């Protein structure tokens, strides 16, 4: 793709949004309401923004995280792990107003998500005033990535500072309930990666049963609204993508699912890293799908030894 992804690709990526503790229960049998269900349960560090930041860092991209954690043991552990991974955490806010964020997911024996709960109240500490105290970071960044966990006023401030710094903004809608927060900024987004439900909210049009043709229509609609690159994930039905110059569909890969959490974040981070490094969009999507596939087979949200070399060696399409 000829579109210049960032005017300053050598700068760090500024990642803004949620961090928290993930707890995932994988059922050993059928789910029965009103009683205890045998399951395998694991915990790891998560949050869309934090996951994207760690994936980018593992790939070799300098990354600065603006997030919030509680003044508690989980917050301390989240910060320690992020720092050990190489993420710059100097702009992460520690607050006593809320506990650290948390996500609870239940998946079936095939690794398919059944339901999920999250507590993202900590993100309310990332206020417009706090973002403005970090304005200097925007001037040195190559781009901003954000998730929709952020308060609406905070999103407005981020887009304003990014425009003043002349750097692109990439986003993840995070959930169906939060996706609408990004609709006012579609013409200011360089890249967005909704799933089919989130795309339906952003486009206000149906995507029947994850149908690829409907998803491509939705992606093209978002491009027409001003988004440069749109990637719509369709769970077990694959991925579609579109820009003003190209579009495509990659069917789902047949792979065993150990843990679905974090696969979409690996996909987004890898595409962003690839485009920052001049890799054409079609190839960037293939690398991203490979990263997502490997993450699905990994117990946890981020592959610890993720690298571009690994993705090249294990390219799945």
Can you put this structure into words, describing what you see?
- The protein has 317 residues and is α/β, with parallel strands linked by helices.
- It has a domain at 13-167 and 253-313: Ribokinase (UDP-N-acetylmuramoyl-L-alanine:D-glutamate ligase), CATH 3.40.1190.20.
- 34% of the residues lie in helices and 22% in strands.
- The chain contains 10 helices and 14 strands.
- The strands form 3 sheets. An 8-stranded mixed sheet has the order 4-1-9-10-11-12-13-14, with helices on both faces. The protein has a 4-stranded mixed sheet with strand order 3-2-7-8.
- Helix 5 (152-165) links the parallel strand 9 (143-147) and strand 10 (169-172).
- The two termini are 19 Å apart.
Summarize the structure.
The chain is of the alpha/beta class.
Largest sheet: 8 strands, mixed
| Shape, principal axes of CA atoms | globular
- Rounded mean pLDDT is 92
**N-to-C SSE string, H for helix and E for strand:** EEEHEEHEEEHHEHEEHHEEEHHH
**The CATH fourth-level homologous superfamily of the domain at 13-167 and 253-313:** Ribokinase
In total, the number of strands is: 14
Low-confidence stretches: none
Strand content: 15-25%
């Amino acid at each position: 793709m000829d579109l210049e992804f960032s005017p300053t690709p050598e700068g760090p990526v500024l990642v803004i949004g949620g961090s928290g503790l993930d707890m995932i229960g994988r059922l050993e049998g059928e789910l029965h309401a009103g009683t205890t269900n045998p399951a395998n349960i694991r915990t790891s560090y998560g949050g869309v923004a934090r996951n994207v930041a760690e994936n980018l860092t593992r790939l070799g991209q300098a990354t600065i995280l603006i997030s919030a954690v509680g003044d508690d043991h989980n917050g301390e552990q989240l910060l320690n792990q992020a720092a050990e991974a190489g993420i710059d955490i100097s702009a992460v806010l520690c607050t006593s107003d809320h506990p650290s964020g948390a996500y609870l997911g239940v998946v079936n024996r095939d690794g398919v998500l059944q339901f999920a709960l999250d507590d993202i109240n900590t993100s309310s500490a990332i206020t417009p005033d706090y973002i403005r105290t970090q304005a200097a970071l925007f001037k040195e960044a190559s781009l901003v990535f954000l998730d929709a966990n952020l308060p609406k006023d905070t999103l407005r401030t981020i887009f304003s500072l990014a425009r003043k710094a002349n750097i692109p903004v990439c986003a993840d809608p995070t959930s169906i309930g939060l996706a609408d927060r990004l609709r006012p900024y579609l013409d200011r987004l360089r890249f967005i990666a909704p799933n089919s439900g989130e795309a339906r909210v952003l486009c206000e049009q149906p995507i029947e049963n994850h149908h690829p043709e409907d998803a491509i229509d939705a992606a093209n609609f978002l491009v027409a609204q001003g988004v440069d690159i749109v990637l719509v994930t369709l769970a077990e039905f694959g991925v579609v993508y579109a820009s003003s110059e190209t579009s495509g569909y990659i069917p789902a890969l047949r792979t065993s699912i150990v843990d679905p959490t974090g696969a979409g974040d690996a996909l987004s981070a890898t595409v962003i890293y690839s485009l920052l490094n001049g890799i054409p969009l079609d190839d960037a999507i293939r690398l991203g799908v490979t990263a997502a596939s490997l993450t699905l087979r990994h117990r946890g949200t981020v592959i610890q030894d993720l690298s571009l070399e690994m993705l090249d060696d294990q390219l799945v399409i």
